Amino acid sequence: YGGVGQAGLEAPSDGRVRAVLGYLTELVQAARAPIVDGTPQREGGHRIAHSLFSIAQGHALLCGRQQATIEDMQVCGRIALSTMPNDRRPIIRALVDPTGTGTLTGHMIEAVADVTRPTAHKRMELLTTLRIATCSESETDGRETKILSVNEVYRWPNGLDFSAC
């Protein structure tokens, strides 16, 4: 492309690219936020969005294009999921997986995260504090089973392949 700074990258014209970038930015902000005095402390979204979009643009260049497309955002999806803290990642992945229901019981979290029941309940509370999900109790089985449900804004976006992540 003519050397450093000569690629002539173009802004995305596809609204899906911008929507997916916004989604991934929000997800990373929420998933990586430390909790201070019971409140999530989110990092700035601008830096996350810029980093992810730069990766998408670099991927587009590697594929011979000067404009990032939804296909280039696939690598950003993998990166976004991999930057989450290890204790949160498996639960968040299971919650946002579009092949699932968007809900997990304490028992499911035990299996997904390989943790004990008390730890699963603590992680459910954590994801509720981060506002990624809400925790409720189901009385359908008579045992008041805890259920974690993904917040609608964190449902995996259409057009972004989850299986590659």
Structural write-up:
By secondary structure, this protein is an alpha+beta fold. Helix content is 45%, strand content 12%. The chain is built from six helices and five strands. It has a three-stranded antiparallel β-sheet. Strands 1-2 form a two-stranded antiparallel ribbon. β1 (35-36) and β2 (39-40) form a beta hairpin. It is elongated, with a radius of gyration of 18 Å. 26% of the residues are buried.
Total beta strands: 5
Poorly predicted sequence stretches spanning 5 or more consecutive residues: none
* Class per helix and strand makeup: alpha+beta
Described by the principal axes of the CA atoms, the overall outline is elongated
Mean pLDDT metric: 88
What is the distance, rounded to the nearest whole angstrom, between the alpha carbons of the first and last residues?
A: 29 Å
Approximate helicity band = 40-55%
Order of helices and strands: HEEHHHEHHEE
Major sheet? 3 strands, antiparallel
**Alpha-carbon Rg, integer:** 18 Å
- Tell me the β content: 5-15%
Count of individual helical segments:
6
What topology, given as strand order, has the largest sheet? 3-5-4
